[in-house]
């Protein structure tokens, strides 16, 4: 082949090596499958890959590292979702060489189901959200173990926060056998160590919520009932770029909240949700839906009506799906929710400002911070006072025309 002829290169990526092979536009082998260790792959790629090449690899743990490495060297890099490459997943004879050449041939005929490659800032946010989720899971597991100990021994704890500092001496003074005392003490120590780690991650998420591109989108999410700062950042990280979804139903499908459908011939059936897509997006939407139906009258009425017909579990999933549709609309159009109540939204923004300690970080009062974001939503221009707990905040005048 001449150097300007396009090659279609398949990469079968493993933990310690990459199997590489390529075909031309006629699916003729032009690069026989060869194994290249990951330590040598960068040098090999710079030496043998051409600017006219197209490359495909499956989504794996190190897929983004390889994507960033290859993207400047070749014409195009595609990352595919392994279960969707059925010729590989369903093959009866499956070897590294065959998988590599199958990928290359599918790429040559344009049959690769490519996934969206998130920019670096989206990857970093997703990694931070996942890290926090792991820490929270460890914290929950420890608390469950400690509560299980109380149940086993029929112990009634004193009032106040069960795991708070005020009850620590009570925990350590429990009459238990030496082995259980050891486990109790170590569980409490681990619990103490996790709390500052979680706080540190949340401080970083607070900081990122004021950084672009997230700062521009945060007010449109925080105006909605049930959505706080951590939930909003999780949603934004999972979505990445709202422009990827031309319609709300595409985003619903991406979250795995769409219904299963089997329609063929005379058969038409629908089932539960698909549960395909971003698991963390589906999880926080369900949590947000529960909060919304607990504190917001509109969503409470919607939930009660649905729960009467289909039960509570299905009803809360339906509320989460409706909430996601609203999220698509407000992020796409950059508008206030049509049901937004200005005073309640102002309280949400004051809470956000207090959480971020904007007096220190931005030199703004929480009321000034809230007014800025109300003006961005073109909401509550006439609002002057906002009760928040036992305090009433006086908002500065709006800078937008009524």
Report on the architecture of this protein.
The chain has 16 helices and nine strands. It has 402 residues and is of the alpha/beta class. It has four domains: 8-108, Nucleotidyltransferase, domain 5; 121-208; 214-333, no CATH class; 342-394. The protein has a five-stranded mixed β-sheet.
- Which structural class fits the helix and strand makeup? alpha/beta
Mean pLDDT: 89
- What sequence of helices (H) and strands (E) makes up the elements? EEEHEHEHHHHHHHHEEHHHHHHEE
Counting structural domains, the number is 4
% residues in beta strands = 5-15%
Q: Which runs of at least 5 residues are low in confidence (pLDDT < 50)?
A: none
Give Rg in angstroms. Answer: 27 Å
Number of helices: 16
Q: Which range best describes the helical content: under 10%, 10-25%, 25-40%, 40-55%, 55-70% or over 70%?
A: 40-55%
Strand tally, please?
A: 9
Shape: globular
Distance between the termini: 68 Å
Major sheet attributes: 5 strands, mixed
Strand order of the largest sheet: 3-2-1-4-5
Question: What key attributes describe this structure?
Answer:
402 residues, five-stranded mixed beta sheet, 4 domains, two-stranded antiparallel ribbon, alpha/beta, Nucleotidyltransferase, domain 5
Short description:
53% of the residues lie in helices and 13% in strands. With 402 residues, it is an alpha/beta fold.
């Amino acid at each position: 082949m001449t150097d300007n002829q396009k090659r279609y290169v398949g990469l079968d990526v493993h933990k310690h090596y990459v199997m590489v092979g390529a075909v031309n536009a006629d699916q003729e082998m032009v690069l026989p499958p060869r194994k290249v260790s990951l330590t040598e792959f960068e040098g090999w790629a710079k030496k043998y890959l051409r600017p006219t090449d197209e490359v495909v690899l499956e989504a794996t743990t190190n897929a983004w590292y390889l994507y960033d490495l290859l993207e400047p060297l070749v014409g195009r890099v595609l990352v595919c979702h392994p279960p969707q490459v059925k010729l590989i997943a369903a093959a009866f004879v499956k070897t590294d060489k065959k998988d590599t050449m199958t990928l290359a041939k599918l790429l040559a005929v344009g049959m690769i189901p490519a996934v969206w490659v998130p920019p670096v800032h989206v990857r970093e946010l997703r990694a931070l959200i996942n890290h926090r989720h792991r820490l929270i899971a460890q914290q929950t597991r420890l608390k469950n173990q400690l509560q299980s100990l109380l149940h086993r021994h029929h112990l009634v704890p004193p009032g106040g926060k069960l795991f708070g500092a005020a009850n620590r001496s009570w925990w350590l003074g429990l009459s238990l056998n030496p082995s259980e005392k050891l486990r109790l003490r170590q569980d409490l120590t681990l619990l103490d160590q996790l709390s500052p780690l979680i706080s540190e991650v949340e401080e970083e998420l607070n900081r990122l919520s004021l950084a672009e591109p997230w700062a521009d989108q945060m007010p449109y999410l925080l105006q909605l009932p049930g959505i706080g700062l951590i939930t909003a950042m999780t949603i934004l990280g999972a979505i990445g770029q709202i422009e990827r979804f031309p319609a709300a139903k595409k985003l619903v499908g991406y979250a795995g909240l769409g219904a299963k459908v089997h329609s063929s011939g005379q058969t038409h059936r629908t089932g539960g949700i698909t549960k395909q897509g971003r698991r963390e997006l589906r999880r926080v939407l369900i949590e947000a839906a529960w909060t919304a139906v607990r504190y917001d009258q509109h969503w409470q009425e919607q939930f009660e009506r649905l729960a009467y017909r289909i039960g509570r579990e299905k009803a809360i999933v339906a509320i989460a799906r409706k909430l996601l549709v609203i999220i698509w609309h407000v992020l796409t159009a950059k508008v206030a929710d049509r049901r937004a109540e200005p005073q309640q939204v102002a309280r949400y923004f004051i809470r956000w400002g207090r959480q971020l300690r904007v007096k220190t970080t931005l030199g703004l009062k929480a009321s000034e911070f809230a007014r800025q974001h109300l003006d961005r939503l073109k909401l509550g221009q006439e609002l002057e006072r906002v009760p928040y707990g036992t305090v009433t905040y006086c908002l500065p005048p709006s800078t937008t025309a009524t």
